[in-house]
């Protein structure tokens, strides 16, 4: 392990580079001409002992754009592969470089990574750069996801480079500093399984297990228990996405983190009007990563992980397949249980069972038919939002409310308990797409006030007395033409 430090700066370590060199390549970021800090996350900076740095804005901009490297620091790009829209591809950090690992104030280890910091050996035809609007989007969305108490990578800084980046139109470049429990993905295991000798897959497994799930190493079959660990994290993660109407947009296996954090905020968005098949990403023409498909896709991706772990589960391939299949067959049940529990909590009913599902199906079908706003509908139910929208005068809605009340009475659930549960489960605030877009337009001009306002509000999304009318948040005409773009 290499490490370096200087007065009042955190120690930056690198345990990942103890892996064989097929897993990474030492790579220096490409310096930029006039770096300027656009966003700086004070709260996160404090947790990692970076507060002192904020006093010197120039040094901050230099370092977090990757333009001045401190001595002793050996950044690197990581190798990985992935199934993109179902097709296996060799990838790797094409525009990201890992700075190293830093312990937070609680002693937990996190990766720090520059994103948009120049070409690497894995860049293929890409320029290694990122636009300010894409990096500002990741900054806003990841911090909002954190506010929603959903596992996620976080963002420490966005530094504009002062250099043009050529996309459909010319934009300013920017470097995001991403903070993650690690950047090890399902695709990292696929890479080791497909391209490296078995002993290197074993080394990756041991390193990852020690870092994220050390207890599995004490079990009879560590690899099988590790698979279970990752499965449970994904069940929790995707259930949370479904709870708040989040659509990741590009759930390729290289964008699925082993630690169970939401990672890679490319074309993601939160839906307004409910539609089970909602898709925002411009390239997802078949709706592979549509809202309700996310559960099935998570299962598919975990199947790819299971496949890559086979030689570690058992040296006998048939036996390994049998064990992995048995474990994978539990996944459906875990998802089902977690999903049903979450649905119940959204309507204030704990311990919902499968036989209660028609109640929820009727509600979701009504939301779909009336394109009701997903977030606000649950606030209407809770009684904290009086809608102007005529759909809430609909007979179907009124009948459903009546059945819901009867159901609560039958189950002996007191109204105050139902409300308390709904308050914890349903956000009153999500980063609405039109607000995100205006924050990004603003940020592209070097202005941050709209984004800062959005970020500040996103810190307490379960608060109820926010002092303004929720309905003003909902755009007229829902999300019909809203599109998001990948890798910009
Ligand atoms: P993403 O869609 O951001 O998950 O990226 C998928 C793959 O494409 C990763 O290997 C990225 O590193 C790579 N990539 C995306 N954009 C660029 C770029 N501008 N230059 C080089 N590589 C890129
Ligand atoms: Mg990615």
TrEMBL record:
Which keywords has UniProt assigned to this entry? ATP-binding, Magnesium, Manganese, Metal-binding, Nucleotide-binding, Nucleotidyltransferase, Transferase
Q: Tell me the residue numbers annotated for binding Mg(2+).
A: 255, 264
Query: What reactions does this protein catalyze?
Result: L-tyrosyl-[protein] + UTP = O-(5'-uridylyl)-L-tyrosyl-[protein] + diphosphate; L-seryl-[protein] + ATP = 3-O-(5'-adenylyl)-L-seryl-[protein] + diphosphate; L-tyrosyl-[protein] + ATP = O-(5'-adenylyl)-L-tyrosyl-[protein] + diphosphate; L-threonyl-[protein] + ATP = 3-O-(5'-adenylyl)-L-threonyl-[protein] + diphosphate
**EC code:** 2.7.7.-, 2.7.7.108
Q: Name one GO molecular function term.
A: magnesium ion binding
The protein's role, per its UniProt record: Nucleotidyltransferase involved in the post-translational modification of proteins. It can catalyze the addition of adenosine monophosphate (AMP) or uridine monophosphate (UMP) to a protein, resulting in modifications known as AMPylation and UMPylation.
- Provide the protein name: Protein nucleotidyltransferase YdiU
The protein's organism comes out as Leptospira kanakyensis
Taxonomy of origin reads: Bacteria, Pseudomonadati, Spirochaetota, Spirochaetia, Leptospirales
Q: Which gene produces this protein?
A: ydiU
């Amino acid at each position: 392990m290499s490490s370096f430090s200087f007065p009042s700066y955190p120690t930056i370590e690198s345990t990942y580079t103890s892996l064989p060199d097929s897993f990474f390549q030492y790579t220096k970021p490409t310096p930029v001409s006039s770096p300027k800090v656009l966003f700086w996350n004070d709260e996160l900076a404090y947790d990692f002992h970076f507060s002192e740095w904020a006093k010197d804005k120039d040094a901050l901009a230099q370092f977090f754009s990757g333009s001045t490297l401190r001595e002793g620091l050996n950044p690197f790009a990581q190798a990985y592969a992935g199934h993109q829209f179902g097709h296996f591809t060799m990838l790797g950090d094409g525009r990201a470089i890992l700075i190293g690992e830093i312990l937070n104030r609680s002693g937990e280890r996190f990766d720090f990574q520059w994103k948009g910091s120049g070409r690497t050996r894995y860049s293929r035809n890409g320029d290694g750069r990122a636009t300010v609007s894409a990096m500002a989007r990741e900054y806003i969305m990841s911090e909002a996801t954190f506010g929603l108490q959903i596992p996620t990578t976080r963002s420490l800084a966005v530094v504009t480079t002062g250099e043009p980046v050529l996309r459909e139109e010319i934009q300013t470049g920017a470097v995001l500093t991403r903070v993650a429990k690690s950047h090890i993905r399902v695709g990292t295991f696929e890479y080791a399984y497909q391209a490296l000798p078995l002993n290197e897959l074993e080394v990756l497994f041991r390193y990852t297990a020690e870092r994220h799930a050390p207890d599995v190493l004490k079990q009879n079959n560590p690899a099988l228990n590790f698979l279970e660990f990752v499965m449970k994290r994904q069940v929790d993660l995707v259930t949370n996405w479904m709870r708040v109407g989040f659509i990741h947009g590009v759930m390729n296996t290289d964008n699925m983190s082993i630690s169970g954090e939401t990672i890679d905020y490319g074309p993601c968005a939160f839906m307004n009007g409910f539609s089970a098949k909602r898709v925002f990403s411009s390239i997802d023409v078949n709706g592979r990563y549509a809202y309700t498909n996310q559960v099935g896709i998570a299962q598919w991706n975990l199947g790819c992980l299971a496949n890559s772990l086979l030689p570690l589960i058992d040296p006998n391939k048939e036996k390994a397949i049998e064990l992995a299949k048995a474990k994978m067959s539990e996944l459906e049940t875990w998802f089902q249980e977690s999903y049903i529990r979450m649905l119940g909590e959204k309507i204030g009913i704990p311990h919902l069972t499968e036989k209660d599902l028609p109640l929820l199906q009727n509600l979701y079908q009504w939301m779909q038919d009336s394109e009701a706003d997903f977030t606000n509908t649950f606030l209407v139910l809770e009684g904290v939002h009086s809608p102007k929208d005529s759909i809430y005068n609909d007979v179907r809605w009124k009948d459903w409310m009546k059945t819901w009340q009867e159901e609560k009475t039958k189950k002996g659930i007191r109204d105050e308990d139902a409300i308390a549960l709904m308050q914890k489960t349903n956000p009153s605030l999500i980063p609405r797409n039109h607000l995100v877009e205006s924050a990004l337009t603003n940020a592209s001009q070097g202005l941050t006030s709209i984004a800062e306002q959005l970020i500040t509000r996103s810190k307490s999304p379960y608060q109820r007395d926010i002092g303004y009318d929720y309905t003003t948040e909902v755009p007229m005409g829902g999300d019909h033409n809203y599109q998001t773009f990948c890798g910009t």
